[in-house]
């Protein structure tokens, strides 16, 4: 039996909870000043590592900075900013934009002869998306960033990323609902999906 591509889309429905979570996930820059329970972060990270990886290398690394540990991240941001000629105090303050910052690292398995670094970064990105969707399902907000400050060698050292690199940081917390979300165009597949 042959099913046309457009027929398949209309005849198959995703479980509503998954679709709702995907549609609800947004980048949030303003967070409430309240702690995120550790057990929720642990549960989200456990779901993150269900991501696929080539040859099961699991190259992702997550370092969680919460509470007073954010001071270590702030010091790393400040050092990186001074090295790069950026404003050090402004950089330092970025560590306190959210109650939790998760530094995301990628450590390629160089022992495996067929592993390519790009594949390892794809796997780490997949784990990061799992993490963001898991957080959204728990009514937690997040913002993913990868500025030169955040992927600096100073942050790598603070996060304990060895033999790899930081690929981004994820700010996590409860959304401050008194602040409006930034407008975004409605996601649309036209122009980005091509059928052959």
CATH topology: NADH Oxidase
Strand order, sheet with most strands: 1-2-4-3
Strand content: 5-15%
Question: Could you tell me the radius of gyration in angstroms?
Answer: 19 Å
CATH architecture term: 3-Layer(aba) Sandwich
Shape: globular
The number of distinct structural domains comes to 1
Uncertain runs with pLDDT below 50, 5 residues or more?
1-11
Number of helices: 7
Give the C-level CATH assignment. Answer: Alpha Beta
Structural class call reads alpha+beta
Order of helices and strands: HHHEHHEHEHE
Ends distance: 20 Å
The level of helicity is: 25-40%
Sketch the major β-sheet: 4 strands, antiparallel
Q: Can you give the mean pLDDT?
A: 91
What's the CATH H-level superfamily name?
NADH Oxidase
Q: Could you please describe the fold and organization of this structure?
A:
With 196 residues, the chain is α+β, with helices and mostly antiparallel strands. The chain has one domain: NADH Oxidase (3-Layer(aba) Sandwich). 39% of the residues lie in helices and 14% in strands. The protein has helices at residues 5-11, 16-24, 38-48, 70-84, 88-93, 117-137, 153-159, and strands at 60-66, 100-106, 141-145, 165-173. The chain is globular and about 50 Å long. The model is unreliable at 1-11 (pLDDT under 50).
């Amino acid at each position: 039996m042959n099913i046309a591509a457009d027929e398949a889309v209309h005849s198959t429905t995703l479980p509503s909870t998954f679709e709702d979570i995907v549609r609800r996930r947004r980048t949030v820059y303003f967070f409430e000043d309240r702690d995120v329970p550790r057990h929720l972060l642990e549960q989200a990270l456990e779901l993150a590592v269900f991501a696929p990886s080539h040859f099961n290398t699991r190259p992702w690394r997550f370092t969680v900075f919460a509470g007073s540990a954010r001071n270590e991240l702030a010091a790393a941001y400040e050092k990186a900013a001074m090295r790069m000629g950026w404003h050090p105090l402004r950089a330092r303050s970025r560590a306190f934009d959210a109650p939790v910052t998760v530094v995301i690292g990628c450590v390629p398995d160089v022992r495996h002869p067929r592993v390519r670094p790009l594949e390892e970064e794809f796997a780490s990105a997949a784990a990061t998306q799992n993490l963001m969707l898991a957080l959204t399902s728990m009514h937690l907000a997040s913002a993913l960033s990868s500025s030169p400050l955040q992927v600096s060698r100073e942050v790598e050292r603070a996060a304990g990323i060895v033999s790899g690199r930081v690929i981004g940081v994820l700010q996590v917390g409860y959304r401050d609902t008194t602040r409006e979300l930034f407008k975004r165009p409605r996601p649309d597949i036209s122009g980005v999906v091509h059928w052959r």
